[in-house]
Amino acid sequence: MTITGRLASAGTDRLPAPGTVLRRSFKGAEHEVTVLPNGFEYEGKAYRSLSAVATAITGSHWNGFLFFGLTKKGTA
Fold it and tell me: What DSSP string runs through 6-38?
């Protein structure tokens, strides 16, 4: 997984700043998600949560923060 762009530094908030691109390899394919001010964009479609994006990628429910490696500060 590769994170490019500027990450938010607000306390316990795990969401990256809008404009950040999250990259995740899954089953041999690279997936890119752009953080929007009110959601996320994946393959030209808007999603309300990272979990919804992770579900679209995998076909099963995932915690989006875990899927994209966004853990609480100090736990990674």
Answer: PPP--TT--PPPTT-EEEEEETTEEEEEEEETT
